[in-house]
Write a structure and sequence with these properties.
heterodimer; A: 483 residues; alpha/beta; Rossmann fold; six-stranded mixed β-sheet; four-stranded parallel β-sheet; 13% strand; B: 70 residues; mainly beta; OB fold (Dihydrolipoamide Acetyltransferase, E2P); 7 strands; 0% helix; globular
């Protein structure tokens, strides 16, 4: 049962669009839709990956965020230099909680902020000399780094620095890969282009420049692609794969290393979790090295079991048996969890507004808990994401692309969901409105949420949020009516 | 002359991916799909028409190839 009827939902969208000037209304109309699972192609009913309108509040990030924050950032044994003013690096430092093992500052650099700290002088005279000096300095201070990426910030593109030449020279002197990433924030409409640029640099500067020839592959090698190990997600995913008999030889890019990237073209199957950010490199490896890729979903027991079986179907009987064994061995745990949490969460309505894979992937996990997702949307999804989402969502539910803060607030006021999952920019607004909210970009500082172990944490967290007594005490005592 | 990646899905349908446009679509029709001749005019489900220079044998999927507007 959906929260609204189709007519009501369409009316709600009309109401929300009322406030916009005509031009804006025409544009925003294309980004909002009422779902109909019978539709196969999203293109005709929702527009995505378009420039946000000036004047509306968008929650999107920039290309730099997509490259440094998402794709390259978690590669732990390389130094990711934020080339430009200091702020971009500092405010994106360690915020995504991509966990890793290693000695930070010695052989891993994930939570550190490296920046060229552009000053006026560098903007006027160019930062190329400074960049070359920084390479030497970093090599002296952190000799165990396996490589360097130069993540360009806006000013570098604006003043036209030739970082390609500097990095090429730097790579030759250091004897390590030094990758120029032209991910200036102004490129593209959202972080999505940053993912693409980062994927292309991995292709051009790592995979094309020599692979790991000494690596001995086995028939059961797989790589986890597009799992950023947020709160330990990749770890709770890989144990399932390992328990069923596969060998996980690379993690892209949560807790990942340069050598793992280099050996990936030797795996038998690429397992793709975040389709949006890493489908480009998966497609490249498919075309160039003939490695098939498979999208999977490790949120919630139903989808995990489905995915494990789909993965196993690509291998021999030993793995197929392994998958069944893993599913059976976790079933008692799942049953116990459901017995505990489903009665507390049954029938609750959820609205989501996140990015990447979550707007569609987590739907199964909520449904396992007896909850219903009544609205979902991507910050920076493309049409192929919506194609996949339409089938996952129920009839007459809302789908919104790059929703503005105003629109989301109005939707929430009307639908009155029992839980909202969105980002930090929305969190405190809705909590002050007295609506249970979880920051689902980095699991509200909890996690992992992937795999069976993650499901236990997910169920606990959702229960903790939805059934928290604080939501009933949002009104100030002096504003309450006297008994 | 866009470059595209053609691959076969699990259920046997041919899918076409155009990297430049970030467009993924199922192939609705292909002019020649025989063992001795493969290629020709290809129409995607959203109506985009592309032309593949006919080949003597079907390629091994996935394959990256150049196509022209059909």
């Amino acid at each position: 049962m959906s929260a609204l009827t189709r007519a009501e939902a369409e009316g709600l969208i009309q109401d929300v669009l009322e406030v916009y000037p005509e031009e804006a209304r025409k544009d925003r109309k294309k980004h909002l839709m009422v779902n109909d699972p019978a539709i196969e192609q999203s293109k005709k009913c929702i527009t995505s990956n378009r420039k946000s309108l000036p004047g509306v509040m968008t929650a999107r990030g920039c290309a730099y965020a997509g490259s440094k924050g998402v794709v390259w950032g978690p590669v732990k044994d390389m130094i990711h230099l934020s080339h430009g003013p200091v702020g971009c690096g500092q405010y994106s430092r360690a915020g995504r909680r991509n966990y890793y093992v290693g000695y930070t500052g010695v052989n891993t650099f994930g939570t550190m902020n490296f920046t060229s700290d552009f000053q006026e002088k560098d903007v006027v005279f160019g930062g190329d000399k400074k960049l070359a000096k920084i390479f030497a300095e970093m090599e002296m201070l952190f000799p165990l780094s396996k490589g360097i990426t130069v993540q360009s910030e806006c000013p570098v593109g604006l003043i036209g620095d030739d970082i390609d030449a500097v990095t090429q020279k730097g790579s030759a002197t250091l004897g390590k890969p030094v990758v120029p990433v032209r991910c200036e924030g102004f490129r593209g409409v959202s972080q999505s282009l940053g993912h693409h640029i980062a994927n292309d640099t991995i292709r051009d500067h790592i995979l094309e420049k020599g692979l790991d020839d000494d690596f001995v592959s086995s028939p059961y090698d797989v790589a986890i692609i597009g799992d950023y190990n947020i709160g330990g997600d990749a770890w709770s995913s890989r144990i399932l794969l390992e328990e069923m008999g596969l060998r996980v030889v690379a993690q892209w890019s949560g807790d990942g290393t340069l050598s793992e990237i280099k050996r990936t073209p030797k795996v038998k199957l690429n397992l793709l979790h975040c389709y949006r950010s890493m489908n480009y490199i998966s497609r490249h490896m498919e075309a160039k090295f003939g490695i098939p890729w498979l999208e999977y979903n490790f949120f919630g027991p139903t989808k995990i079991a489905e995915s494990l079986r789909a993965i196993a179907s690509r291998f021999d009987d030993r793995i197929k048996e392994g998958a069944e064994r893993v599913i059976a061995s976790y079933q008692p745990m799942v049953d116990a969890l459901n017995a505990k949490y489903v009665p507390r969460l049954q029938g609750k309505k959820v609205m989501l507004y996140v990015g990447g894979l979550r707007p569609r992937h987590v739907i199964g996990a909520y449904e396992d808990l007896g909850m219903e997702v009544v609205g979902t949307g991507y910050e920076f999804g493309h049409n192929d994401d919506y194609d996949r989402t339409i089938q996952e969502m129920g009839d007459a539910t809302l789908i919104y692309d790059d929703v503005t803060e105003f629109e989301l607030e109005r939707f929430v006021a009307k639908i009155k969901p029992d839980l909202i999952g969105a980002g930090i920019k929305e969190k405190y607004v809705y909590q002050k409105m007295g609506i249970p909210f979880r920051q689902m970009h980095s699991w509200d500082y909890s996690g992992p949420y992937h795999g069976y172990d993650g499901y236990a944490i997910f169920a606990r967290d959702i229960d903790m949020t939805v059934n928290n007594p604080c939501w009933k005490n949002m009104q100030a005592p002096w504003k309450k009516e006297l008994p | 002359m866009p470059k595209v990646i053609l691959s076969r899905a699990d259920n046997g349908t041919l899918t076409c991916y155009v990297p430049k446009k970030d467009l993924e679509g199922r192939v609705k029709s292909l002019e020649y799909d025989r063992a001795d001749c493969w290629g020709g005019r290809m129409v995607l489900e959203d109506g985009t028409a592309l032309f593949i220079e006919p080949l003597d044998t079907p390629p091994i999927f996935p394959v990256e190839m150049r196509v022209t507007r059909g």
